[in-house]
Design goal:
With 262 residues, this protein is mainly β. The chain is 2% helix and 58% strand. The chain has one helix and 20 strands. A hairpin with a 3-residue loop joins strand 10 and strand 11. The longest helix is centred in the middle third of the chain and has 4 residues.
């Protein structure tokens, strides 16, 4: 389960013997995946949230937020890289491993901040730096804010178009949406591919996501900023948006979800 801190102990079969490998560290999230392309086998990646601890003498120490990559060498763990990661997350809501670009696997963390917004952080191996890299590189930058979104959007990294790569979601309100009483369908969810070489997100598609009824609607490119969405029960309607009047126009699409018995 997410955010359940614990200790890591694994077993390795080496020279006809099973070895217990106790790292002796705690973690918030962990995953196994293929991160270093020119090495055999898989690696273990561990993420730890920022926290404070009270010492016996009453002083408080800060434990930084870090990500650490390990490999098993013979019958022992070897640390390949350790980096600082976003210290503003208070908990994780999603942790996924998968390809984000051709030849690059990433550990994708969606974290909640103290103001109840969600942001995405990518951790991947750089063959040139021979180290883990985090994207965005710096907190509170334009790159970081690109994935900052309202928790009501309720979307996390996934392979939305089945092309074999994880897409990263961003969310923005549809024109005229009620930001005070927002729901998931109040947002235009844009899915983006991460371009490792240029360190940027590239738009793949815009969608309306309705997790309650298990579907999403891909919006045509030419509809961007020209439509808005309203929902009522099982009905989702897409309306033309009149920018001059700042009001909805005619309905151009209606989706109705019917109960199974109907």
């Amino acid at each position: 389960p997410l955010n359940q801190r614990g200790n890591i102990c694994t077993y390795n079969f080496y020279k006809d013997t099973i070895h217990e490998l106790d790292l002796g560290i705690s973690y918030t999230e962990m995953a196994i995946g293929k991160f270093i392309g020119n090495e055999d086998g898989e690696e273990l990646i561990v993420a730890e949230l920022f926290r404070t601890e009270q010492k016996e003498d009453g002083t408080t120490v800060e434990i930084p937020a870090t990500a650490t990559l390990y490999r098993v060498n013979d019958s022992r763990y070897v640390m390949c890289s350790q980096i600082n990661i976003d210290k503003t997350f208070v908990r994780y809501v999603s942790a996924t491993v998968g390809p984000v670009d051709q030849g690059t696997n990433a550990f994708v963390l969606d974290g909640v901040k103290a103001d109840n917004t969600v942001q995405t952080e990518l951790l991947y191996w750089s063959s040139s730096a021979k180290s883990l890299i985090t994207y965005p590189l710096v907190e509170s930058t334009a790159e970081a804010n690109a994935t900052l979104r309202n928790t009501a959007s309720n979307v996390f990294a996934r392979d939305i178009n089945k092309d074999g790569l994880l897409e990263i979601p961003t969310a923005s309100f549809f024109p005229g949406a009620d930001s005070e009483n927002s729901s998931q369908t109040s947002f235009r969810i844009s899915w983006n591919r991460f371009d490792v070489a240029n360190q940027e997100y590239l738009l793949v598609m815009d969608t309306v996501v309705n997790s309650e009824y298990g579907y999403f609607l891909q919006l045509p490119d030419e509809w961007r900023d020209l439509v808005t969405v309203r929902t009522s029960g099982r009905i989702l309607s897409v309306y033309a948006w009149n920018n001059e009047l700042a009001d909805i126009g005619e309905r151009i699409l209606k989706i109705t979800v019917y109960p199974e018995e109907q």
